[in-house]
Design goal:
This is Short-chain dehydrogenase. Keywords: Membrane, Transmembrane, Transmembrane helix. It is built from 2 helices and no strands. The protein is mostly helical. It has one domain. The longest helix is centred in the last third of the chain and has 23 residues. The relative contact order is 0.11.
Length: 43
């Protein structure tokens, strides 16, 4: 929860001057994939 909020805030600040929607979308997809990989490895 806290990590996701911080990541969203940082991403918003970094992408404020760029095409943020594309970058945030790709970041969200990669984050979900990485999270699933980590969870599957732990279990």
């Amino acid at each position: 929860g806290h990590f996701t909020d911080e990541a969203k805030e940082r991403a918003t600040t970094v992408t404020s001057g760029m095409p943020g929607k594309v970058l945030l979308g790709s970041l969200a997809v990669t984050g979900a994939i990485v999270a699933r990989l980590l969870l599957s490895r732990r279990r």
